[in-house]
């Protein structure tokens, strides 16, 4: 999982999504790998406005990167080659290969294995309203189905 | 200025939607002057040659674009139109090396007749050398006859004379030549549900994939759509409820991932962002507008009943502890899945798109329908999404549609009065929840329930 992706995900538990403490998910026991990729300044420039800068600062810190500037680069700063290169390296070229992402709200741990994060929830954390609806459906269904 | 686009005679109902999408993406004004599903020749009005090049460059269903020098229902009319439109420009082409060709759609001409047709344009007095290979300018006479397919579909009579004739000066080719590169037969990692190269690329065009943009596929599988979007320059990532789809069997490490191998094959590795395991109904993606495009072919539930996470019987709301460790943290834990309605799934895709697309961002989604009962499967709608285009790919007893939506800016809403109003209330089996699946199996081989039982065995 790349650092950029971590900035766009939060806890999959419905109740957590609205809680400010669920974002960003916290990396634990992260094993990093750097992969060199073509530098695409156009993309970095487009994506920065959509990045949650505070969240990225927390993530970068947890992964042991040098501190990011306090405020998000805007305007002229987006034409600074070095700034874009640094962000490219952090967002695009840094991958977490093994480790966990932990929700600061409910404490649920999402595993990352071989670079792939698993956000499937165990059934007790799934979408409540659907489970209830399911019960309604079952109540009306013929018993032979169960 | 008027231009003529030569279209591929394939996936006809996708051709104009693709051109319109490309015009939007290239920011050019496009006016369709004449178009017929049964003809490859489409006349359009564009501002200038630059606009024409920008429009055609990424087209998959268009072959090339020509400057229209004249048209008519017979040669007399054509010659008069050519003189009227282009007489003042003939001098410019006096000495350039050129080629002059005649093609007949759904008709035939002998070599002798073709030479006579070419000679009939001698009044333009081009004196440059004739070069069949790499000419500076190419002119083409295009004869359109009435195709047999049109006669059987619309009636009419077979004619030995063309219905319409055009003369064009070639300007630029499209991207159609890249199709063989992305041919599934040559792709490293595919599955039975991989979308073919042509329609994947068209889907990416419909969603306006372009450099600098972020694209997502929530049912990524082997990544057919993402690879296509990446070809057009978008940065792409995907998710799937079943990671085996994008991992592949022999994966060791992220760069051996089946999906990533496809990007490597096409030299698109830097366009790959990520793939993760998740379920659209409990997606970890944040509710913020950050996606430029969503491209997907949701599972129809034909090959297997649809499933999402959750217990079928409503049980399992308490965590299970095994040897002091929560079962869901133990290796090899497989979360339970429950049947899921096809209509509910589409609604979830639309809701997801509304939450995550930037204003003007697009969702291009495939959905199946029984051929003769389209009324029963209205296009799913959402007030925050505008339906941009709907195209149909017909098969013998069913068809599938590509529906493209645009995320409206806040404060604008679309008319959803024609939308389906159906919830996932009744039924618990896959076919109770999926009218398409029920009909598909009713027609093909018994009922979907029988299929379920077969699967269970």
From TrEMBL, chain A:
Name of one Pfam family that matches: Trm112p
GO CC field: cytoplasm; nucleus
Coarse class of the protein's main subcellular location: cytoplasm
Subcellular location: Cytoplasm; Nucleus
Superkingdom of origin organism: Eukaryota
Keyword entries, A-Z: Cytoplasm, Nucleus
Matching Gene3D superfamilies: 2.20.25.10
GO molecular function: protein heterodimerization activity
GO terms under biological process: rRNA (guanine-N7)-methylation; tRNA methylation
UniProt family annotation: Belongs to the TRM112 family.
This protein's name: Multifunctional methyltransferase subunit trm112
Species in which this protein is naturally found: Penicillium alfredii
From TrEMBL, chain B:
Recorded GO MF terms: tRNA (guanine(10)-N2)-methyltransferase activity; tRNA binding
PANTHER family registered for this protein in UniProt: RNA METHYLASE-RELATED, TRNA (GUANINE(10)-N2)-METHYLTRANSFERASE HOMOLOG
Keyword Transferase assigned: yes
Domain of life: Eukaryota
Pfam families, alphabetized: Tmrp11_N (PF25904), UPF0020 (PF01170)
UniProt keyword tRNA processing present: yes
Positions of the tRNA (guanine(10)-N(2))-methyltransferase TRMT11 N-terminal domain: 1-176
EC number per UniProt: 2.1.1.214
Taxonomic lineage of the native organism: Eukaryota, Fungi, Dikarya, Ascomycota, Pezizomycotina
The protein's name: tRNA (guanine(10)-N(2))-methyltransferase
Sequence similarity: Belongs to the class I-like SAM-binding methyltransferase superfamily. TRM11 methyltransferase family.
